[in-house]
Fold this sequence. Notes:
476 residues, 5-stranded mixed beta sheet, alpha+beta, 61% helix
Amino acid sequence: MNKKIWVLVFGLFTVRFVLALLLPLSPQEAYYWNYSRHPALSYFDHPPLVAWSIALSTFAFGDSVFGIRLPALLYSFGTFLALHLFVRKLFGSRLEEFLPLLLSPFFFIGGSQMLPDSPLLFFFSLVLFAGHQAAIEGDEKAWYGFGAATGLALLSKYTAVIIFAGLGTYVLLTRSWHFLCSRNFWFSILLCALIFSPVVIWNTQNGWASFLFQSTRRAGELSGFHFNDFGRYLITQIITVSPILWLVNWRALWVGFREGLKGSNRSFLFLTSFALPFFSIFTLLSFFYWVKLNWLWPGYLCATALAILLASHQKLRLWFKTSLVSSAAVTVLSTFLLFYQPFAVNWSGNSLAGWKELAEKVERMKGSRMGEWLVAGYEYKAASGLAFYLSGQPETYSNTLVGRPGLQYDFWFKEREVLGKNFIFVIDRRYQLKNASAVLANFFSQVEPPDSLVAKSGRGYVTTFYIYPCYQYKGR
C-alpha cells in the first residue's frame, strides 16, 4: 500500500513541477528575484534567505522561471518529508493521510511559487521535529537543531518569531520551567541569534529600516474594527486550505488542546502550542488589518500533523476522505482559474496575467522612439514584472522616482545616474496613481498622454496598464 502511495506522492510533485514551469512568474517572485540581483545581508521588507536561495539556483540554471522556482519545489518536498518523518516517528507510517495537505491549494499551488514562505515552511517543519525531540523526548542536544532551524526560519520570514510564542505557550501549559535551566537550550537561542545576525547587521547599517517597517509602520496601518476585513480573511483562508481541511484544522486544535491538558499525550499539546499562536494572532488581527492568505501557512502545517496524530489515536475521525475530496476539488478549480478566467470579472487576485504582453508593448514603444529609454513601474509589482520580462532583463525603477515610498527599490535608486533620462512609466489600474499625468509632470520636462494595454486571462478582464512616455527626468 505504501509503495502505491509513494508513487502517488511523487506523481503529485511531478505535476507541481510541470505546473511551476507553465505558470507565468508572479510579480512577487520577480521582486524576490530582483533581490537576488542585488546581493545584500538583508532587505527592506523581508529577510534574505529567499534571495540567497534564488541567487544560488539562478547561478546554476540561469535567470529563468525554472531557475527561480526550483528552490520552492525543493523546499516544499523537504517540508513534506520532514513532517512525514515526524508523524512516522510518533505513530508509524500515516503517509496516505498527508494527501489532503499535499492537494490543498496553499501547498499544491503556493508551494510551486518561490516566496519567503517556501524556506519558512521547510525550516518550521524542522523546528517541530527538533523541538519535539528536545522538549518531549528529552534529547538535550536536539535543542541545537531547534535553534538552528528557528534561526533559518527567521532568516526566511519575520513571522517566524511566532515560533517563540509557540514554545512559550507549551512551557506555560506544561509548566516545563526546567527548560530555562538547560544550558543546551540557551546555547540554542544563541545559535539562533547568530544565524539571524545578517539581518541585524543590515538594519544597523540602514537605520533599522526593516525592523521599523515591520513594527511601527505596520502598527500605524492598523485601522478601526472592520468586520468586512474579517469576512475577507475567513473566505480566503477557507479557499486557500480547502473547506473541509480548514474545519479539520480548527477541530484538531480544540481536540488537541483538550486532550493535551488531560495529560494523556504531550505531543498533542506540543503541536497545539505551536499552531495556536498563528491562528489566534492573525484571526484577531484580521478585524483591524488585511491579513494575507499565506501568513497562517505554518499553522496549517502544524494543525494538519496534529489531525493525523489525533486520528491515529481515535481522537479525530471521519476526516480523511472528505478532506481529500475537498482539497482536490478546490485545487483543480483554482488551477483552472490561474490559466483561464472564463468570466469578465475584475479579479485582482490574478497577478500572473499580462506581464509578457506588457513587456512586449513597452519594447515596441521604446523601439519607436529615438534615444535611450529606461523603464519604471508604479508599485513594486509592475517594476518587478517588467524587470523579468523585458528583453535583456534591465534595471527598472519604481515609486522612488516620483517621490513615493518604493520598498526595496528605495535602496537601489541612484538619482544622479538617471537625471535627464527618458522613461516609459507604467501604472497598473489596480494600484492607481491619482492624477498621474499631473504627478509625473512634476518630475519630467514633458509627459505624453498614456497608451494602454488591457490584460485578460481567458475571457476574463484582469486589469489595464497605462503607459506614459516621460522625457528628461528632473529629479525629486
